[in-house]
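Please fill in the sequence for the structure shown.

STRUCTURE ENCODING:
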């Protein structure tokens, strides 16, 4: 009689061992993010700009938190208020984990957006939001790693000139790595799901 295992028990055992090996190789949970993900997260170069009261604020001051970084301006008629409203909703819906999130808006209109003007603007959306200003050279240096684009438009309105600018929002993790870039039309609930997953699995 053959000493080989019979198919009645060998096949299920083999299948279970194969499944275990497959799960081990996959290495834990995965998540499909709503934005463009950096496959190899890279540290964002630190920068220091100016907040209300001429207070210097550095990106590195927020290590240990998830930072949403956005480049916009207070005279923006559409993209900026929509984005800040969405981030405000996200912050509220985060509930008990809200302290792990920080929103920073860097102006792309340093001529009109003083630190105090920015502070008044962003805190209308959420008291925790921070607005940062600086010289054009300082703003360019802060935005360079993200490929930020902004340029004064030829269009004039009753409120003055407009600025064409990038509208992505960048998520930076507690270690200071750029993780996800969100397009302007990403729903707040999808961004919330992403952040909740990161807090649950990486914090």
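FILLED IN BY: designer on duty
SEQUENCE:
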């Amino acid at each position: 009689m053959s000493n080989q295992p019979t198919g009645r028990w060998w096949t299920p055992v083999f299948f279970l061992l194969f499944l275990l090996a497959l799960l081990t190789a996959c290495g834990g949970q995965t998540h499909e993010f709503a934005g463009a993900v950096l496959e190899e997260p890279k540290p964002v170069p630190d920068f220091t700009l100016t907040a209300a009261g001429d207070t210097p604020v550095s990106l590195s001051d927020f290590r240990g938190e998830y930072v949403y970084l956005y480049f916009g301006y207070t005279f923006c008629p559409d993209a900026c208020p929509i984005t800040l409203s969405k981030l405000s909703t996200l912050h509220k819906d985060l509930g008990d984990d809200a302290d792990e999130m920080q929103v920073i808006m860097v102006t792309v209109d340093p001529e009109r957006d003083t630190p105090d003007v920015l502070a008044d603007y962003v805190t209308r959306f959420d008291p925790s939001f921070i607005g940062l200003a600086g010289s054009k050279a300082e703003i360019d240096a802060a935005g360079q790693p993200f490929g930020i684009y902004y340029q004064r438009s030829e269009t004039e309105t009753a409120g003055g000139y407009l600025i064409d600018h990038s509208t992505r929002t960048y998520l930076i993790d507690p270690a200071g790595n750029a993780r996800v870039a969100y397009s302007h039309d990403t729903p707040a609930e999808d961004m919330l799901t992403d952040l909740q997953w990161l807090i649950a699995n990486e914090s």
